[in-house]
């Protein structure tokens, strides 16, 4: 399993301090991306939180997810949350060590009272003393929030520095990015008022079996609430591992509503879903993978988009047009780029898998942010995508009408059938998942070759069969391999004179979807 060591550095630890007229919450930032390029410690906001207790509880919930492994929870993980300034709001994101739970706290304009909100993305320090201090906030006395260095602080790293180093596997990076693309397929399924939300969440089982998160449950809207159902009927919502919603307990007493999002029910397999607590001036959203034992990186629903040259080129163009918008408008991007709306959406999927956009289910729209990790590296190293490219490069694919034949290295022959654009395969992967976790490597390879053949024919370099021999039997066609749009390189901390280092040897898991 490929992994890298992620290092983040702060000028000082984040802290909650007493001050005349209230308290001051200073959240320290690491090196990150801004509209003007990389900055060592970008500053995004200075002002007051209008609901201090709610904000403190929401930040703790995001930190809880960052420090959790819901599958085999006795093994701890810890990685600082990501903060994004979108000009009109602050977003705090985290991803569980098991790769199956994504959390985001959106602090909207009504939740903030102060200076203009900046633009950019970086890590924010959330340490144990800060967590303890936030948990003791019990009143709504004025709370001043600063995200980034103090105006009077020396911004160069020539003083004490707190540095944390965490190993990041590719599949964890892929999961963090792919959770956004998965959420783009969700619709609002139910909205519960505060009392029903409290009743429902408190009724969920909290125990686990053998140290593992519980299995999937199904619920359906019933009146103003939700009721359990034994099977996934139309309109049902999947709750895969109810105990993975435990972080919502932090904000439950402040919630004014609970919204549930999910994809359409198409069978009896477990589905991903998003659960959003509506708070005064804020929203806390937890997105759950379909199974607690595997993370988002194994879902593979975006592999088709990654396998095309067109989407790669479009993504490079769309990336230039993004400007840290809190809500990406597909129509505006289409007009500015000259691309059809469907190609803009495909480009956003591509950018999502490389960590360059997130998805807000409440607004049904992507938002611009640049993860402070090399998520594009994980995209390039996707096991199924790599294997498919290898099959194409080895000439292992041949086409005969709607049937594609793939000969593996061990001599096994797999047949891929194209039924109105939907591919099925004779391999064990397809037999097990039936496309529920995306295409297998054989189907991906066949799709690459078909697209390459169509491109050659369109350019006048081949026959209608795409192979130039006119005999109705297409030979292997190897298109140019899709180039991943280069994301901004992972931020690296600047040198420091004096450092206090914390080496966090943690484990991050999640199915890799081979």
From TrEMBL:
PROSITE patterns: ZF_SWIM. It holds the Pfam family SWIM. Residues 452-499 are annotated as: Disordered. The keyword Zinc applies. It comes from the Bacteria. Keywords: Metal-binding, Zinc, Zinc-finger. InterPro entries: Znf_SWIM. One of its GO terms (molecular function) is zinc ion binding. Residues 472-485 have a biased composition (Low complexity). Residues 414-451 form the SWIM-type domain. This is SWIM zinc finger domain-containing protein. It comes from Streptomyces sp. NBC_01393.
